Amino acid sequence: MTREIRIPAPHPRFRPRVEGDLRRPSHPGTTVRIGEDLYEIVAAERTGPEWVYRLEPWMDEETIRSSVEWGEGSAREFAAGLRDDRIRGRKTLLTWGAQALLGFLPAKNQKRIFQARGMDPARATLWSAALETLVSFPFAFLFLLSLFTGGLGASIPAWAGGLAFVVTADGLFRLATVISTADPIGSLFLAPLGLRLKSEDPGCDLSDEISGIGEELNVVSAVPKAWWIRAGGVTYGGEPYILTGSDRDRTRYIYRFHKGGKDFPALDPEREKARNRSSDLSYVFAPLWGFLPSEMQKTLEFYGRYKPRLSVIISICVNLLAALALLGPGLRNLSRGVFEIWSLVMLAAAIALVIESSLRLMRLLKDRRNTGSFLGFLVKPIYYLTIKDSSPGVGRF
């Protein structure tokens, strides 16, 4: 007799039956015990606001791999757990939304928030340092420019210029630190807050959680694994495993494998940790990568989270805006008959940026080629600091 279970959200332990094909064997669905009867989940689908799981009587010749008790009490507990998850989710969403501000806190505070809400302290530091640098750098630049030009142009008070210079230095130092070490670091101005903490909390770890039971292998990761999906499986402990499915639980990615297949790449936990970090930072710094040469962009595409076309378009727009900013003063001086070396240099740079941007845009639209900019040398240091996965197989896995 066929039965149905209707619940408002997918159950994390309910897995429908997987039919076999040439590459993988069939796999029975989760066993569900309702009273004294056993059922197998044969199908799952979303119908409006509900998830519907279709059950059929369990076949005695199958081996029970996972079993779930279900009844009125289990349904009430599941509904109560959903409510609690929604409340926690709202709090976590607020934390993640404010991470650019929370990243200014001392590292110990950030790690405490990570333990309570799951915020990535390294990413919070990264965004806060980038925000600090972007806001303060224009004022620091204008202040230094006024010092070299004798006060010509924009006038910045000495106290404001000095403060902007210190803030920029703080932001750049924090940015370089978190990129090179992946460790959170708070702002110099909020350092006294960290003196009140009495205990050290563990930091954020990008290692995968690997667990195996019988012929099943489950991996929980902080990042999506595009290279596993392309390969179709992994080899772990000398045994090949076929990828049978994947899910996402908020900020975690769950991959399920079943023993079988052959010739899959090896799953090395340390190499995966390096790839996880590179994958995460390839996504975080995506707007910068469009300036890089096409070979480096192809390497970043390996991780599955970098979309080169959008990043190249962003880099072209930035170059054109920079060209306009340089073009104005140069043309104004020429119209006045003023021929200064600095103005001519800015004018030449603006023309070079316009020509290069036009050529890159034509290659992108006509040939679909993602080419870099000559300004890529400014971005390469960030690339070499972030992408440290030098293990064999990058770009070919």
Averaged pLDDT? 80
Strand content is: 15-25%
> What's the helical proportion of residues?
40-55%
Helix and strand pattern: EEEEEHHHHHEEHEEEHHHHHH
Q: Could you tell me the number of beta strands? A: 10
Any overview of this molecule?
Helix content is 48%, strand content 16%. The protein has helices spanning 72-97, 99-102, 107-117, 121-148, 158-181, 226-231, 269-284, 286-289, 294-301, 308-335, 341-367, 380-386; strands at residues 3-7, 31-34, 37-47, 50-57, 67-69, 209-213, 216-221, 233-236, 239-249, 252-259. It has 12 helices and 10 strands. A hairpin with a 2-residue loop joins strand 6 and strand 7 (216-221). The chain is of the alpha+beta class and 397 residues long. The longest helix is centred in the middle third of the chain and has 28 residues, at 121-148. It has 4 domains: 3-83, no CATH class; 98-196, no CATH class; 209-267, no CATH class; 281-386, no CATH class. The strands form 2 sheets. The chain has a 5-stranded mixed beta sheet, covered by helices on one side. A 5-stranded antiparallel beta sheet has the order 6-7-10-9-8.
